[in-house]
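Retro notes, item 3 of 5
We never archived the inputs for the heme C complex last cycle. Fixing that now. Sequence and ligand:
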Amino acid sequence: MKKISLTFAILLINLQLFAIAKETALPASSRSIELNFADLLVIALLLFAVVALLATVVLLKSLKVMVKERMHPTPFVKYKAPASLEYIEWIELKKSKPNIWTKLLSLKPIEEEETLIIPHAYDGIHELNNPIPRWFNVLFYGTLVFAICYFYYYHVGDGLRQDQEYAAEIVKADQDKRVFLAKAGEKFDENSVKPDQTLVANGKAIFMANCVACHGEHGEGLVGPNLVDEFWLHGGSISDVFKTVKYGVPAKGMASWEKNLSSKNLAEVVNFIMSLQGTTPANAKAPQGEKYEVKSEKDTVNNEIITKN
Ligand code: HEC
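Structure as it came back at the time:
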């Protein structure tokens, strides 16, 4: 019987390990539960096997009991009621183990009740002297001490009263807001993006990781158009390019990168693309789209970057 239980346990552990192994083997993104029919069938079979095993174990155990009874039947013994106790005996029995409740409330055991009676009676009703438990008194005097300290700290000492605390919190919230707004300033969108040379280096890394497959290592263009000349399909100002990268041209095979890149990353890669302007990589794709003319200073290509390249 032990052996069967052991096999059963081992089987369960194996199942568990199998499940864990399968889970870790999947890439993080596809770890959601997507079961096909074959998986469901396997799971159903495994469940069935487990249930069958359980049933077998129970059956075997009962068989064992039956066989044992057959071979060495337990002799029949007549039921004998336990002798009833006298009250005194019962009290004696109880005496040995005071329970938690009586301890907690510092109650005297019932057999000592007589010593607790206060010698006065109202209409023949006696009162017992059950003093308050020590811990309760400690709590009570504790609150007194706390009140004194509280009063001293908040009304005499330098603890802040509610109105002062409120004022302090307002000041702090104001500071937090400033910090938040300063950070939010780092967020870029098509309106706020500007040529910024400091972003180019990071942008290059992002370009290498995400864009080379379609635009070539030097922006010469492969599936996608070249990104080095002044001809653009979707406008050549920095905010146009930002928009193209952010929202994509899904119908033409250019993905929207809004979800995969942070706005900072977008600004970086866009600045990198702008830095490619005027470079002449080998086997660049023929120009596509319209020639883009700089309309305002804030627009497009950072001349500084071009002359550098
Ligand atoms: C799956 C291939 C593919 C990938 C990857 C890809 N692009 Fe594109 N991209 C295209 C195609 C195709 C177009 C042309 C869309 C059209 O014809 O309107 C395009 C267009 C563009 C344009 C507009 C060019 C113009 O002339 O207006 C820019 C800018 C651009 N991609 C930047 C990027 C950046 C940045 C990345 C990486 C974050 C990237 N692309 C990744 C395929 C891709």
